[in-house]
Amino acid sequence: MSLTLAIIALGFLIVVHEAGHYIVAKLCKMRVERFSIGFGPALWKFRPKYTEFQIAALPFGGFVQISGMNPHEDIDLNDPNVYPNRPTVQRILTIFAGPATNYFFAIVLIFCVLMSVGRETGRMQVADVHDGEPAVGKLFPGDRIVSVNGKPIRWRADSGIQHAELTAAIQEGKGAPVTILVTRGGKEVEVTIAPRVGEIPSAKGPEKGYLIGIVPSPEREQIGVGTALVQSAKFPFIETRRFLRDIYGMIKRTVPAEVVGPVGITRAIRGYIRLGWVRTFEILALLNVYLGMFNLFPLPALDGGRLAFLGYELATRRRPNPKVETAVHMVGMAIFAVLFLLVTFKDIKNIFI
Asked: How far is CA 291 from the centre of its chain?
């Protein structure tokens, strides 16, 4: 069941992105011929009026086909509803709408979390203890975790998606018993637990590690609507800055380079779904930010690449050579197709390692 929900969640990210393009294109009076979730042969089609909606065989991606958007298309130069004949600003807004909608939905998801369960205080507590696990009878829901093996533990309040320090502290012991200090009923209680080998969720999917069988969660406090709106609006920009900082670190080789494809992302979402709807909303918000930010990179075949050509047109008041633009995007698509296959192969291999 969790795998099915993870696939649906990944499809949700695609729908959000492409819906942004679709809605703004329609508002700008462009003719949208097809709205596709996935690539390849269509498994299901529906054409209510002017646009054909479809679900294709390869679910990892999607596209909105706007008449005349591809420079090599044969179009009626007198048709005001084709993409090239709309004002430059409208075309820029249409392309930018995909990433912008991802950012907007990230804000919506985080706002739902903040209004439902409150914001994080930076302290960690035990949300649940699984039956038959090492922590049974030693830790209880509501325990506030203070330290592990003498090392203070906090929940990273700057990002509710990051792994709790508790997980890292347990892995450092490499399976040896860990001493955990908690506060319970206003008193400090120290327990020793021997972890077991299991799977822990990570950005690239479940990995083998050491578990004590609890569900850690941030301690939260209720906040008002205004504060929730402000914090929600800040979320995508905070995560974008962190995302860019990590990429810079990868380039300088100070941060390990981890590239994950749709298979790995689906596995990661599945892991968070098992932790409850709050963590699921948080990871989906983060993935919306990543998808929006990645698409804004000025690379061929991405929204950012198209925006670069439109920026040139806006600055020079003349359109780029259609053949050059087509060639650039085709090369970009070929490169991304190869990278997609390589990353997908790596993700599938990691499942069996």
From this structure: 6
Beta strands per DSSP E along 114-238 = 119-129, 144-148, 151-152, 178-184, 187-193, 196-200, 207-211, 214-221
Are the C-beta atoms of residues 251 and 240 closer than 8 Å to each other? no
The enclosing H or E element of 44 equals strand 32-46
Q: What is the distance between the alpha carbons of residues 167 and 151, in angstroms, rounded to a whole number?
A: 12
Token look-up 């995302």 returns 243
Dihedral over Cα of 163, 169, 175, 180: its sign: negative
Q: Which of 170, 132, 353, 146 is nearest to 264 (CA)?
A: 353
* Domains observed in the chain: 2-112+287-351 (no CATH), 120-221 (2.30.42.10)
φ and ψ of 279, to 5 deg? -65, -30
**Residue in the block written with tokens 């329609």:** 26
How far, in Å, CA of 346 to CA of 341, rounded?
A: 9
The DSSP annotation for 297-338 comes to: S--TTSHHHHHHHHHHHHHHSSPPPHHHHHHHHHHHHHHHHH
Sequence-distant (6+) residues with CB within 8 A of 45 are: 52, 53, 54
**Helix count (H) and strand count (E) of the chain?**
8, 10
Residue 183 has a pLDDT of 93
Selected residue with higher pLDDT from 37 and 229: 229
Q: What letter does residue 76 receive in the DSSP assignment?
A: -
Enter the pTM of the model: 0.81
Indicate the helix (H) or strand (E) that contains 64.
strand 52-66
Write down the residue that tokens 């890292």 correspond to: 168
Q: Supply φ then ψ for residue 100, to 5 degrees.
A: -65, -40
pLDDT at 159: 44
Coil, strand, or helix at residue 160?
coil
| 20 within 8 A of 101, measured Cβ to Cβ | yes
For residues 236-263, average pLDDT: 81
